[in-house]
Amino acid sequence: MMSGGGGGGGPGGGMGPGMGGPVGGGGDGRHDDEAALTEFLSSLMDYTPTIPDELVEHYLGRSGFHCPDLRLTRLVAVATQKFLSDIASDSLQHCKARVAAPIKDNKSKQPKDRRLVLTMDDLSKALREHGVNLKHPEYFADSPSAGMAPSTREE
Amino acid sequence: MGTPAKRPFDAAAASPIPRRFQAAVSAVSTAQILRASGYSAAEAAALRALSDVAGRYIESLGRAAAAFAEAHGRTEPNVADVVLALEDHALDGFPGASDPARPVLCSGALTELARFVAAVTEVPFAKPLPRRAPGSGASKGWESFAAAEREPPLRHVPHWLPRFPEGWEERFRGRGEAAAKDEEDTGEVAVKGSESFAAARREPPLRHAPHWRPRFAEGWEERLRLRGRGEAAAKEEEDTGEVVTVMANGNLVENGRSSVPENREKVLFRLGDKRQRRRQALPPEKCGGALELFVKRTEKLM
Known about the structure:
Order of helices and strands of chain B: HHEHHHHHHHHH
Largest interface: A-B, 79 and 82 residues
Helix content of chain B: 55-70%
Distance between the termini of chain B: 51 Å
Strand content of chain A: under 5%
Oligomer: heterodimer
């Protein structure tokens, strides 16, 4: 299925350093791995990523990636989704850590657990570990709640 | 951008979702991913920033994959290129990264992805997005002179540029006429007004003024002195009394006595400046007559 697909060179094409791998017993192993990969790629067609295909193709087109194979587009979409959910979970941990740290009275902690808001602060901390530097100015004094603590300011 | 498209429909397939639409779509997708991770709300700025980062991540993956493909002499990336790009982007590493002879197609990055896909619940995008059909051909929206086999109407226009729209001549002429009408009164004077010191064979009265600049208007010394002393306001008063009261009251009053005295200075100052500027642009021969009317009319409108 891989070599018959429209995805270009397939495994026989530019494999890179992988072809120098084990030949003898690894031959069967490679088939298994390819089978696993094939299965994974076909399962991608059943799974619809949250990021729509057209959007992914648009962004990929801007960087010179043109591929008629939809499975690769789905692969990139899923990779981006994983990236975003990693960032989301990291910033969620930051948020929860911030809520847990000050020991306030119990009844004020409950509503905060139920309503978690993504703030620029948490986001920039989470992104920094993934290699993105995001700096957000503190506040613009254009609203009555400017400058207040972010947890009390919900949008 | 990477390699150019081989077929016309390739360019069309990769082309324009308008930028705000794309930002909105990516914001919605990002919001859905955030919600699936447990967030119930997000700051607007944070959502926009994260969706922008997501778009850039996709672009970065695409660029890396295209680069790997080109390094192997291909123009279209395949799955191996994408997997290598993914491994490149795994900043925290992935299992099996230390093995330089690792098989690409079953790399640790892929297994991590597979685990993620198995674990996460599917949240597809709600509405279908418009997409150009790949075989529909690139409609540029314009046609060059050469393609339309017409001669460009103006000599300096090359034939490979897009055609002029229909009716451009009337629109162009109409605009030109409106401009010319304004220029009518001052048409003959404009040339005279911009005579330089050198052309008039006169020495610039002030040392810093170069001789190729236009001549100062007649009577400039007097006006300068008067303005410096603030008497220009008084001098202007009798000339522009009518104009001032039109401005201050909003209705036409001939004599200058019924305007509000306390505002008059301020109004005078503004108008006075405007009149001064206009005067210095043109020699004083033309300051009476048609120009006066023109000034009054525009200031009434203001």
